[in-house]
Amino acid sequence: MPSERPPLDALTALPTPRVWSMLVTIFGDLARNPEDRIEGPTLTRLTEGMGLKPEAVRVALHRLRNDDWIASVKSGRTASHGLTPHGRRESLSASRIIYARQEELPVGWQLALLESSDADQKPSLQAEGFVQLLPRVFVGNGQARVPQGVAVFMGDTPPNWLSAQIVPADVTAEYETLLTALRQTSARVADLQPGQLRPLDVALTRCLIVHHWRRLVLRHPYLPPALTGAAWPGHLCRAEVTHLLARFQRPALHEIQGT
Amino acid sequence: MPSERPPLDALTALPTPRVWSMLVTIFGDLARNPEDRIEGPTLTRLTEGMGLKPEAVRVALHRLRNDDWIASVKSGRTASHGLTPHGRRESLSASRIIYARQEELPVGWQLALLESSDADQKPSLQAEGFVQLLPRVFVGNGQARVPQGVAVFMGDTPPNWLSAQIVPADVTAEYETLLTALRQTSARVADLQPGQLRPLDVALTRCLIVHHWRRLVLRHPYLPPALTGAAWPGHLCRAEVTHLLARFQRPALHEIQGT
């Protein structure tokens, strides 16, 4: 009979998530299929397990309905909630970045040089994940598409100063904090057998991991290890996330409803 | 009996050279060996053939002696002049750029990115013939040496705007003017047989060609056709200079003295 509680203190000690953002994570991770709905009581148990207040969850659900992200229906006295088509598209698009294993991501890097500092191609470069280094110089992963008229150069081994200039120090520091929490979590669950946890606790653990990772990984474009160095905390976080999500396999919704 | 005069009007129509600079060309082209001396009367005939005034030549010789570039000795009533060891070193160093055929020059190009706009490596890059494009970005030929700590990228096909940004328009315009004069000269001498000209006139023609070419080619670093385009007038000038100097082979000093 599963009865252990997951050791989540390292993850719950991280900055308290914004409630609406945490709900985006929960639905994006657990209820991404068109027919998936999470019942009110299940959502309450998940959010309470993360220390979120019921009133804050109600407000956040209201906001997400207004944003056409979540739709709620009532069946008798029980509400159930699911992603709208819009929310599902956004979730699927983000999931390609959030859940990618390092080996699925582009390798190598490139430098792009613009004709002028107000060149037309700037938005396209940024949309392709290029990071601005100088008014006319961007860097990005080696498979990013470069618009016409931009001079492009494949990167070799970069000097150390380059990664420090393209990754803001505060972003690196946030990844370091997350890395510590992920490693502590990994160490504490090392001896747990999958069956020892209730599906709801597995879901809770996954959502906390994905949430804190998602916040960071969607904020800054992906820069490959060739550019940042393989020991950059962002890459090490991705390895830990991949490892932990494989241990805490996503439960089916019916396993966590009404438990 | 050689009797033709070389058709030099296209070359003498170019901006009048500075006299001291013209003397540097004459000695650098005709009298580069340690034992080479040009006798006063020969120098007079060469400079008069270029339209230079005897008084201006005397002043320029005085200046070049003060600069430890030329040494003069008197034997009876005749002075003779030659490069000093210093003048010879400088001439030899410049000659590697002036007389190089296109196929002897580096191919390909590279971009160098500095850590900061006041990086220590800036003078080294400039000494290696890199041209500054932005405060932290230089371009140069593909074989130029790049100092430690500089990020370097091999160039591929560059966009058109790049060559316009690295070669000042006035430099290109000057090459265009020279190219016209060189091509007119080539056309006029097309039917001349080498033996039809006196050695002194061959020397005169060479020196005018080398002089106007030298002024330009030493002023701006060498940028390969991969970067500027093969049709850039600087490269076309080099081809014409190579062709003309092969037609007007350097005479031995003894052939032009006292003729």
TrEMBL record, chains A, B:
Domain Transcriptional repressor PaaX-like N-terminal as annotated: residue spans: 20-85
One of the Pfam families matching this protein, by short name: PaaX_C
Lineage: Bacteria, Pseudomonadati, Pseudomonadota, Alphaproteobacteria, Rhodobacterales
Residues annotated as domain Transcriptional repressor PaaX-like C-terminal: 170-252
Signal peptide extent: none
Protein name, as recorded: PaaX family transcriptional regulator
Domain of life of the native organism: Bacteria
PANTHER family attached to this UniProt entry: PHENYLACETIC ACID REGULATOR-RELATED TRANSCRIPTIONAL REPRESSOR (PTHR30319), TRANSCRIPTIONAL REPRESSOR PAAX (PTHR30319:SF1)
Biological processes per GO annotation: DNA-templated transcription
Matching InterPro entries: PaaX-like_N (IPR012906), PaaX_C (IPR013225), PaaX_trns_reg (IPR011965), WH-like_DNA-bd_sf (IPR036388)
